[in-house]
Design a protein that fits this description.
The protein starts with 14 loop residues before the first helix and ends with a helix. Strands 1, 2, 3, 4, 5, 6, 7 and 8 form an 8-stranded mixed sheet that branches. Strands 9-10 form a two-stranded antiparallel sheet. The relative contact order is 0.22. A hairpin with a 4-residue loop joins strand 6 and strand 7. It is 26% helix and 28% strand. By secondary structure, the protein is an alpha+beta fold.
Length: 223
């Protein structure tokens, strides 16, 4: 949340340009804050930053990885999921494929690819990893490292309904248009903190997922 939204701000969007910018701006260096509780990810919002400092003192770090799968259609899309309603964490919410990093994962990238296979059946054969986005912290102690990837069309999904109710695609042009980035606020222990929401048709994209999409926009188009 580093910049205010200008309502007349426009994105010069082309798929080839998006992938070229991503390759130029992203890499595979793992930030130490993914595992180190003394390094608190910065959000750019003072209220959220204070919340993350409190969470880091009170809860163990929960390293996680997600896959921002950009499907290279003529009109590119991002693959998202709707989490199953019975889950303990973030039940029913819109999310990227992903989850906690296991000890057997060789890297956060490996964790993101494994989770995408387990949750929605996305084969690694269709995925071209591009690089890591910024580390993202949540109120539940998660430290999430997103992997941005180009996904070749033609894949078949196999939904694991114990984890995911649905998988769907949203146009990248919609998600990268700052006019669609709503800012809302909520209270955390008497402090106001802000978060993003990007409603799309009947899907309410908000919280960490919308926050990481906003970071993607800022890294690729505003940096």
């Amino acid at each position: 949340m580093n910049k205010p939204i200008a309502k007349n701000e426009q994105v010069a969007f082309r798929a080839a340009d998006f992938f070229a910018r991503s390759r130029a701006r992203l890499g595979f260096d793992v930030p130490p804050g993914l595992f180190d509780p003394n390094i608190v990810p910065a959000s750019g919002d003072p209220g959220t930053d204070k919340m993350l400092e409190i969470v880091a003192r009170e809860q163990p770090v929960r390293p996680a990885a997600v896959l921002i799968a950009v499907v290279d259609h003529p009109e590119p899309t991002i693959l998202l999921t709707q989490r199953s309603a019975h889950l303990n964490d973030h039940a029913g919410q819109i999310a990227f494929p992903g989850g906690k990093i296991d000890a057997t994962d060789s890297s956060p990238l490996d964790a993101a690819l494994r989770e995408a296979e387990e949750e929605v059946g996305l084969s690694r054969d269709f995925v071209e990893p591009i690089g890591y986005l910024d580390l993202y912290g949540t109120a539940f102690g998660f430290r999430i490292l997103p992997t941005v990837a180009r996904v070749r069309p033609g894949f078949q999904l196999d939904i694991n309904h114990s984890e995911v109710d649905d998988a769907f695609e949203v146009p990248l042009s919609f998600l990268m248009n700052p006019a669609n980035h709503q800012v809302h606020s909520k209270e955390f222990r008497g402090m106001e903190r802000f978060y993003y929401a990007m409603p799309f048709a009947e899907r309410y994209i908000w919280g960490a997922t919308a926050g990481m999409l906003r970071v993607l926009y800022e890294r690729i188009y505003s940096s």
